[in-house]
Design brief:
Layout lengths: L3 H13 L1 H5 L5 E4 L2 H7 L8 E4 L2 E4 L2 E7 L6 E5 L5 E5 L2 E7 L1 E4 L1 E6 L5 E4 L1 E3 L2 E4 L2 E3 L2 E3 L11 E5 L5 E3 L2 E3 L8 E3 L12 E3 L2 E2 L13 E3 L12 E3 L2 E3 L6 E6 L4 E3 L2 E3 L3 E7 L4 E3 L2 E3 L6 E6 L5 E3 L2 E3 L10 E4 L14 E6 L2 E3 L4 E5 L10 E6 L2 E3 L7 E3 L6 E4 L1 E3 L10 E3 L4 E3 L5 E3 L39 E4 L2 E2 L1 H7 L6 E4 L2 E5 L3 E3 L2 E14 L3 E5 L4 E10 L10 E5 L8 E6 L2 E5 L6 E4 L6 E7 L2 E5 L4 E3 L11 E7 L2 E5 L4 E4 L11 E5 L2 E5 L11 E4 L3 E5 L2 E3 L4 E4 L6 E5 L2 E3 L5 E3 L6
Parallel strand pairs: 1-2, 2-5, 3-6, 4-7, 5-8, 6-9, 7-10, 7-12, 8-13, 9-14, 10-15, 13-16, 14-17, 15-18, 16-19, 17-20, 18-21, 19-22, 20-23, 21-24, 22-25, 23-26, 24-27, 25-28, 26-29, 27-30, 28-31, 29-32, 30-33, 31-34, 32-35, 33-36, 34-37, 35-38, 36-39, 37-40, 38-41, 41-42, 45-47, 46-48, ...
Antiparallel strand pairs: 11-12, 43-44
The structure holds calcium ion.
Amino acid sequence: MITRKYIVQLICCLTLGFFLAQESKASVTLVQNMDQYKTATKSLIPGDTIMLANGIWKDAELILQGNGTLEKPIVLIAETPGEVFLEGKSNLSIGGNYLIVKGLVFRNGFTPSSEVISFRIDSENLAFHSRVTECVIDDYNNPDRNAQDTWIMMYGRNNRFDHNHIEGKRNVGVTMAVRLNSEQSQENYHSIDHNYFGPRPVLGSNGGETLRIGTSTYSLTNSYTEISNNYFDKCNGETEIISIKSGKNVIKGNVFLESKGSLTLRHGNGNIIEKNIFLGNGVAETGGIRVINAEHQIKDNYMQDLSGEDFRAGITIMNGVPNSPINRYHQVKNVTISNNSLINVASVELAVGSDGERSARPENITLEKNLIISENAADIFKTYDKIDGIHFVDNQSNFQSTLIDKGLETTEIKLEKGSNGLLYPTDLSIQAGAPRDLRVLSIDETGTNWYVKKSKEIVFDVGKKIKVSPGLNQISDALSGAQTGDILELEPGMYEQTKVLDITFPVSIVAGQDARISFEGNSLFEIYNGGALSVTGVKVTGKNAADAAGNAVIKINRSGTLRNYKLKIEKSEFTDMSVNHSFNFLEASSGSFADTIEISNTNFKNFTGSILALNKEKEDLGKYNAEYILLTENRFESIGGVIADIYRGGTDESTFGPYVLVQNNQIIDAGNNSRNKTDSSFYLYGTQWLVLTGNSFLNSAPVKVIEMVGTPYSLFEKNQFDQTKQIIHSKNQVIK
Ligand code: CA
């Protein structure tokens, strides 16, 4: 009988060619399950190919071990690239020489170990001269966002990771790392190229890097890893998009699109950063290159429309620690930064982080022939210490800087698009800036051509409208038939909910006229992982709520949210949440994280608890519960607890937020309940950006702002305080 296996073998032998046909022992084996896989991979010889049958492989822990040769590698391949799905608790580890893995998709699950793809089987069996190509890891996350793992870990030497599609890491842990933790993994000459590193959402914690090369322990060792022609698309995990922690790496020809954070030379010396393109499109916190350590060359890079400052400036040069311990900040020395274009970049910052500990100023740094153009000819240089060790030579700009006395020539510079789509001076005699023939990598050259690169961001109001009539549990009934992006339109009348509204996908609830909701449980809404809620124009009373302490109008499920959620409330009313003590509006949970909480034109009245209880990450590890909190034109009256109780503790400097905007609100009798231990109407601990303007306070507890690490920004303007103490503002509490 001619079996499917026989046909596949025949075809493969023909297509893989001559070598395999000649080698009598080497074979192509199609395997259907793990038993067959284990048998087939027991003793692999050069030229062997193992082919995974199309379909879903559940809980498959694939180990590929063997020694191929340059001419006859050992190959693990999908029957059809993109049609072999590794799901559940699956992973892959490879060890030996000349191995190739191609065409696998990891999704719908997470690794049972600490890595999804590992270039070693154990500490004795590493991979060399091996390649992982055209594989996908998409949203393959442990449901607990605080559970740490790494998707790809490279060990050994001379390995290549290329044309892979890596997207949607949401839990703690760097997406991909190169380890140098044994001699066999040092001076490794790996290549990481042509990969698509797709969106990684803001983590709200350290450990959200997309790529890390080395660790501080081995950072004085050279890695010789080349990171070239990769696309970093919205890699927003934390302040370090790439964290270089070793020496002699080359980072070349990559594109960073709308990625929050910067390419950081965190540890190690002698790295080369060239011909990379950073396009921020004005998105907040998009940065360029942050420089620490010695002997780097930064040349021919192009940056445009980057909004980041401080650690995320276009170029950030840090101050170091004298005789720094290996894990702190070594002095920046002998670095050249030349022929880079910085077009409409918000800031270039020098001697950043200068303080009692970081007192070693940059030494023997040359900035030469850079083109620096700022919007409206504003001076974008900032310094935090003397910059006598930084020399400017033949740089061109369209603005004057009071900080730089020579080497920065100021003229009016007109720009036009070059054939590569980037901006260059119309005056061809201007020699400064990135080369005119700089090649711009296209997104299509990265990842695979069979896996789509499309945005999976949460959006409201993209689905259908569902009319809802008043009555008992009518909203929950409507919700059970709704789908992502749908809009429940409430007709006027009284809605009673005895059931909690479980929000498991993005949904909007909208009322044009008088729609009133009362609820009987401990909460009206519960937001689960994957949920997002928009509420407009409803009136909610807590009069019938359960007589229990600690109710909340909206609770975030206690297992947290792996996917960041959004909450939007407008033109609504929430009253009489007072049946028992500590009745909150929003109760976050540990391990939950909101991208945005936006509340406007809404009345809150008679709460025994707090409005926003975003204070559930108490370990002082730099974690917090929400990135953007925006409160505008609301009225808060008789709120026993805190209007916004926000906590971000610890000295970690890896994250962006919390950002808090409190504007044009009326606050009457807030924060006065004796159970409110903070004695405040706003308790803002460790916020990084705060604007509190145009608010009126009457008979309320004071606003308390406790600034922590970093360079937090706080602005207080045009607030009125009537029978209310002034703002208590303690600045920059640096903890050592
Ligand atoms: Ca970090």
